[in-house]
Design a protein that fits this description.
The protein is α/β, with parallel strands linked by helices. The chain folds into 3 domains: about 140 residues, HUPs (Rossmann fold, 3-Layer(aba) Sandwich); about 120 residues, Alpha Horseshoe (Serine Threonine Protein Phosphatase 5, Tetratricopeptide repeat); about 140 residues, DNA Cyclobutane Dipyrimidine Photolyase, subunit A, domain 3. Helices cover about 45% and strands about 5% of the residues. It is built from 17 helices and 6 strands. A 6-stranded mixed β-sheet has the order 1-6-5-2-3-4, sandwiched between helices. The protein is globular and about 70 Å long. The protein binds flavin-adenine dinucleotide. Flavin-adenine dinucleotide (FAD) binds next to α7, α9, α13 and α15.
Length: about 450
């Protein structure tokens, strides 16, 4: 079987089925989707059409106007593309606790097999653990999130330097477009009632987290973001990606998280553009491939990716040794959430998150390190960081979220000089930020957002 694919149960194909069901849990796109390609291959083999299904629940943790709107923005394009390519398309938003909660099972009742996304965190992981035993047909999970398939690795890698050579050894084999497919049997069935888009206002979700002021969701927005990055920022990336006010990064993480674009498409486009214009794209590809896939590797092999127990022993021990160091100032989760610290730069990073759904990557490190410095305990700091990222970040609830939050505590890092609170865990200071970055300009930019 294809190395991207895992069969998670031992059920037989339904003989008199109407279609193969592709359940887009994470990779909500038609383009460059290995899981959808697998569903089409399976359907063609059995002389069946494919139904593309995406759902939107009201009860997953942190469901809000922000996250709902981002998902809903993508629906019209996906539906159009499905119809053009002969796939059925079904979108179901469960508006409130009284709405039916069994749509997947209803659709699976007419399916020969289910194909879905292999994803190592959040609700997709839970679904992929529980659903396979509850249905009576094969349940395949396919990795269309990583360029080098997660399944190629047998264990958790220690750090970027251990996974990098392993990725580079096989990268040329996997850095190729998803094979083009064609359905043999177009989809022609009537679909159950409930089909159709909704607005976040109709759903029983958190209305206090507003849609992002900067990032609309959807395939078109993702393609525009990529194009802007190629035209304006790729040539600046190596020099300026650590200069938040310079805005030289791609801002693709929300689109990668919701699967509106694949990292494979981004890497191929970046390589092609760099070759044509004689640019060096190595720094960007290091983040997009090595760092991102290190995060997927971490999550895949960590039973609880949100636990502080995942950090290396040296980090656990040094934090323990400094657990009773005095923290001054000290803030509560509510104070952090309200961007109400004494530090104008920190408040700006939090405000950027609150307003846009994303903080610049360089200042996200500062943001995390200061939460450690100003929280009562390391455990409380970790909980605050995960809560804020998952609730407000468009790219939160992602393998990158938990890996990078834990990086602030020493994961994938090395010991540094010992100091208060952090022990040997890397520290970041306001003076360092002032020296290396244009703090006043960044604060001004965030203030201008709203
Ligand atoms: C405390 C903390 C929390 C973070 N939380 C998240 C999160 O919730 N979701 C998230 O996607 N990233 C997170 N990151 C990693 C990183 O900050 C973001 O991926 C990056 O800022 C996204 O912006 P961009 O798309 O403009 O990145 P670019 O610099 O343009 O990079 C391109 C892509 O490479 C990947 N990438 C970049 N930096 C990293 C990194 N350090 N580790 C892994 N992959 C990376 C991302 O997919 C990103 O979209 C976090 C970092 C820290 C320090």
């Amino acid at each position: 079987m294809n190395v991207r694919v895992r069969l998670l149960n031992n059920k037989p194909i339904r003989p008199q089925a109407k279609y193969v069901l592709y359940w887009a849990q994470m990779n909500r796109r038609v383009e460059s989707n290995h899981a959808l390609a697998h569903a089409v291959a399976l359907a063609n083999e059995h002389g069946l059409p494919v139904l593309f299904y995406e759902g939107l629940a009201c009860d997953y943790p942190f469901a809000s106007d922000r996250l709902h709107q981002f998902v809903l923005d993508a629906v019209p394009h996906t539906e159009k593309r499905c119809h053009k390519l002969g796939l059925g398309y079904f979108f179901y938003a469960r508006k409130n606790a009284q709405s039916p909660n069994d749509m997947l099972y209803r659709l699976a009742a007419d399916a020969a097999a289910v194909v879905t996304d292999d994803y190592p965190v959040f609700i997709a992981t839970r679904h992929n653990l529980t659903v396979p035993e509850r249905i009576d047909i094969p349940y395949y999970v396919v990795d269309s999130s990583c360029i080098v398939p997660m399944n190629l690795f047998e264990k958790r890698e220690y750090a970027a330097y251990t996974i990098r050579p392993k990725i580079n050894r096989v990268l040329s084999q996997y850095l190729v477009p998803v094979e083009r497919w064609k359905v043999n049997v177009p989809f022609r069935y009537e679909l159950p009632a409930g089909h159709g888009a909704v607005s976040p206002a109709e759903c029983d979700i958190d209305h206090s987290v507003a849609p992002s002021k900067l990032y609309p969701g959807g395939r078109k927005a993702a393609e525009k973001q990529l194009e802007e990055f190629l035209l304006e920022n790729l040539r600046r990336y190596a020099r300026e990606s650590n200069q938040p006010a310079g805005r030289a990064t791609s801002c693709l993480s929300p689109y990668l998280h919701f699967g509106h674009i694949s990292s494979l498409e981004v890497a191929l486009a970046v390589k092609e553009y760099a070759a044509e214009y004689k640019l060096v794209a190595d720094e960007f590809l290091e983040q997009l491939i090595v760092r991102r896939e290190l995060a997927f590797n971490f999550a895949r092999f960590s039973p609880n990716p949100q636990s502080i127990d995942n950090i290396p022993n040296w980090a656990l021990e040094t934090l323990r040794k400094h657990a009773s160091d005095i923290r001054s100032p000290q803030y509560t989760r509510e104070q952090f959430e309200a961007a109400a610290t004494h530090d104008a730069l920190w408040n700006a990073t939090q405000n950027e998150l609150l307003i846009t759904g994303k903080t610049h990557g360089y200042y996200r490190m500062y943001w995390g390190k200061k939460i450690i410095e100003w929280s009562r305990t390391a455990e409380e700091a970790l909980a605050t960081m995960i809560y804020l990222q998952d609730r407000y970040a468009l790219d939160g609830r992602d393998p990158n979220t938990y890996t990078n939050v834990l990086w602030c505590f020493g994961l994938h890092d090395r010991p540094w000089t010992e100091r208060a609170i952090f022990g040997m865990v890397r520290y970041m200071s306001f003076d360092g930020m002032k020296r290396k970055t244009d703090v006043p300009e960044y604060i001004r930019q965030v203030a201008a957002l709203g």
